[in-house]
Write a structure and sequence with these properties.
The chain has 297 residues and is mainly beta.
Length: 297
């Protein structure tokens, strides 16, 4: 069965194709979701979600057409699926909503397992909404991009400084990543394998955080990841006074040396580990200096 949203015939900011809220025990199996006008599969404030053998296909040039976006959901499984879309292929969120007569609702996203799934376009990400926190995520035995260059970046963390949540206990293992390259129709300034950015808003530069506006980033692990190539390895940045804690890399390889390596700053070095990473990853507890072309740490 295919659910066709006819999004390309409608509008680039239309309704979401499949959205449920405050629901339990949802199963999506052997179904296609095509041509969504906006986010494609968006369960919210729900528990017990199984998505298996689903196919999400949207034109790559259509913005805001996220693929699978579990939002403030608990106990989520996505497996054996294919996603090819114009925006975030998978985006795990914890949104900020309200009901009449109530205060803001901020529920964590928690216990999320993604495996044997391919994202051809565009990428995997956490955020940008992380208000209630994102806990206990495992992504394993998955593929991102292909060797032709279908993905302009692979893994991205993007958390707003205001109303920040906790990002804790995330594991990524046995991932195969293709050729990560910028493109003219989607992301002309892409090309990086990884971005961890907890100050997600380009219009507010040089920010710091206070006790109540600091995100919490703890125990995020990357292991056994093979990347064909990228234009740059990645940018990893915490906050001054709010370091990234428990960040670890093991056996992470970009096979073709990228023109730009890593930048990595504001990391708690007492809990940081990088073993068998190529190009080598060196982080610091203070601000990271940008890299020059054709330079790797």
């Amino acid at each position: 069965m295919v659910v066709d949203g006819l999004g390309i015939l409608a509008t680039l900011s239309g309704p979401r194709l499949f959205e449920v809220a405050w629901t339990s025990n949802i199963t999506l199996s052997h179904v296609g979701f095509h041509n969504s006008p906006a986010w494609t599969v968006h369960p919210t404030f729900s528990k017990g979600i199984l998505a298996e053998n689903i196919e999400i296909l949207n034109p790559r040039f259509t913005p805001n057409t996220d693929g699978f976006d579990p939002d403030s959901c608990v106990d989520v499984v996505l497996r054996d699926s294919l996603i090819d879309t114009g925006d975030d292929g998978i985006s795990i969120k914890s949104g900020n909503s309200s009901e009449p007569g109530s205060s803001h609702i901020q529920i964590p996203a928690q216990n999320i397992h993604i495996y044997r799934t391919t994202i051809l376009s565009r990428n995997y990400c956490i955020g940008s909404a992380t208000y209630g926190g994102v806990y206990d995520v495992v992504m394993e035995d998955c593929e991102i991009g292909d060797d032709v260059g279908s993905s302009p970046w692979a893994i991205k963390y993007k958390s707003h400084q205001q109303y920040v949540g906790t990002l804790r206990n995330h594991t990524y293992r046995r991932l195969r990543v293709g050729r990560i390259a910028s493109n003219s129709y989607q992301q002309p300034h892409g090309g990086y394998f990884m971005s961890i950015e907890l100050r997600y808003h380009p219009l507010i530069p040089n920010r710091t955080c206070t006790k109540w506006t600091c995100p919490t980033f703890e125990n995020v692990n990357f292991e056994d990841i093979l990347v064909t190539s990228a234009e740059r390895a990645g940018d990893i940045n915490g906050f001054a006074g709010d370091l990234l804690n428990g960040l670890s890399f093991k056996n992470v390889t970009i096979m073709e040396k990228p023109p730009l390596g890593w930048t990595c700053g504001y990391v708690n070095m007492s809990t940081f580990a990088a073993v068998q990473v190529e190009p080598p990853l060196a982080c610091v507890s203070g601000p990271a200096a940008p890299l020059a072309m054709n330079q790797s740490p």
